[in-house]
Amino acid sequence: MIFRQLFETESATYTYLFGCTQTGQAVLLDPVLETVERDLQVLHDLGLRLSYTLETHIHADHVSSARKLKARVGSRIAGPAMDGLPCTDFGVAEERPLSLGSLHFQALFTPGHTDTHHAYLVVDGDTWRVFTGDALLIDGCGRTDFQNGDAATLYRSVQEKLFVLPDATLVYPAHDYQHRHVSSIAQEKERNPRLAGKSSAEFQAIMADLKLAHPQKMAYAVPANLACGQCPEDIPETLRRLCDPSFQGG
Question: What CDD domains does the annotation carry (predicted)?
Answer without folding.
Answer: POD-like_MBL-fold (cd07724)
